[in-house]
């Protein structure tokens, strides 16, 4: 099954650029061994400690040269894992000698100059919930400006950052939607019923995590009525201790109730995982067979922010792969 999960053409819809940097990339970018070794020791940490680890990657990508290399390396690694469609997300930030515009331009350049065949890459830009309403609005205006120049590449806006801090500002996301951007919002990573209700009522195109929705009957009923696809990041949740184990992960509720979800890595560098491994985990935890695993990948195409044409192309290639690789009688 390891080989099957590796070879399966996969759709990655929830990957944070800086959280996805591999140890090799960190090394290449001049990161010190003792910083990198913090990654190696990650087995079980709280969300708070996970956030401290992003500093390591942020230091490594604090100039455009390194950011460019980091972006290309992440794309290469996903391509080697047979990810055929990648929605990479990142938070525009400024550093000494690099403005937010420089940051976005560099990531766009690295994606456009991608040298790897067989992977289609789109960009989602993130708003950091720790930032103020004014700062988030300013970043959104910047994102809209870039989206108008690169509509094929920039497809959506994400809300992420420490879930224990900051706010979801609905009007900011209304504005994103009015300007033709899709919305993917981190939601219910920790218990926060009032905010979850606000987010659900906004009806984003996708939700990240959705860990504490089914635990509240009122929210669960509302969610099921809305039927919004959830990006499930199993290893991330197990390591951050918001899921007890793979077998007890909330994705089981989605499987049981036939609700829409995709599998995702979240931060493959920090959590030392790959999308193939996420498929393997769900295979083991839920006893899913090859056809069921393929179906998760296939359905994810629908939840992606790809164009209708791109979705058709992806469906066609997955169907072709299925005929060649999965026996009918499964
Ligand atoms: P970046 O946006 O490319 O810099 O990727 C790292 C950033 O993604 C972090 O600083 C967080 O803001 C965000 N992030 C990564 N993983 C998570 C998560 O599990 N929950 C919320 N935010 C996250
Ligand atoms: Zn995330």
From TrEMBL:
One of its GO terms (molecular function) is adenosine deaminase activity. The keyword Manganese does not apply. Residues 9-319 form the Adenosine deaminase domain. GO terms for biological process: adenosine catabolic process; inosine biosynthetic process; nucleotide metabolic process. Gene3D superfamilies: Metal-dependent hydrolases. Its cofactor is Zn(2+). The keyword Zinc applies. It catalyses: N(6)-methyl-AMP + H2O + H(+) = IMP + methylamine. It comes from the Eukaryota. InterPro entries: A_deaminase_dom, Ado/ade_deaminase, Metal_Hydrolase. CDD domains: ADA_AMPD. Belongs to the metallo-dependent hydrolases superfamily. Adenosine and AMP deaminases family. This is Adenosine deaminase domain-containing protein.
């Amino acid at each position: 099954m390891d080989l099957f999960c590796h070879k399966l053409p996969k759709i990655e819809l929830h990957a944070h650029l800086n959280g996805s940097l591999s140890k090799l990339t960190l090394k290449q970018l001049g990161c010190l061994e003792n910083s990198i070794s913090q990654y190696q020791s990650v087995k079980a940490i709280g969300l708070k400690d996970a956030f401290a680890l992003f500093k390591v990657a942020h230091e490594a990508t604090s100039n455009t040269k390194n950011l460019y290399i980091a972006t290309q390396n992440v794309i290469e690694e996903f391509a080697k894992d047979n990810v055929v469609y990648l929605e990479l997300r990142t938070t525009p930030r400024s550093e000494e000698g690099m403005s937010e515009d420089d940051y976005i331009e560099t990531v766009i350049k690295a994606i456009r100059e991608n040298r790897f065949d067989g992977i289609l890459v789109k960009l989602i830009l993130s708003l950091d919930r720790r930032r103020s309403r004014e700062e988030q609005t300013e970043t959104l205006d910047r994102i809209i400006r870039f989206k108008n120049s690169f509509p094929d590449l920039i497809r959506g806006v994400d809300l992420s950052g420490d879930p224990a801090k900051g706010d979801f500002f609905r009007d900011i996301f209304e504005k994103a939607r009015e300007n033709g951007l899709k919305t993917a919002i981190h939601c219910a990573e920790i218990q926060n019923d009032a905010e979850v209700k606000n987010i659900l009522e906004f009806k984003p195109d996708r939700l990240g995590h959705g860990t504490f929705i089914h635990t509240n009957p009122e929210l669960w009923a509302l969610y099921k009525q809305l039927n919004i696809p959830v990006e499930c990041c199993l290893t991330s949740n197990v390591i951050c201790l918001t899921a007890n184990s793979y077998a007890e992960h909330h994705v089981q509720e989605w499987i049981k109730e036939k609700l829409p979800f995709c599998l995702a890595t979240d931060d493959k560098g920090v959590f030392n995982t790959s999308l193939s491994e996420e498929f393997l985990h769900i295979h083991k935890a839920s006893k899913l067979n090859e056809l069921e695993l393929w179906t998760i990948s296939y359905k994810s195409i629908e939840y992606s922010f790809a164009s209708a044409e791109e979705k058709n192309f992806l469906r066609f290639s997955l169907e072709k792969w299925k005929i060649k690789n999965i026996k009918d009688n499964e």
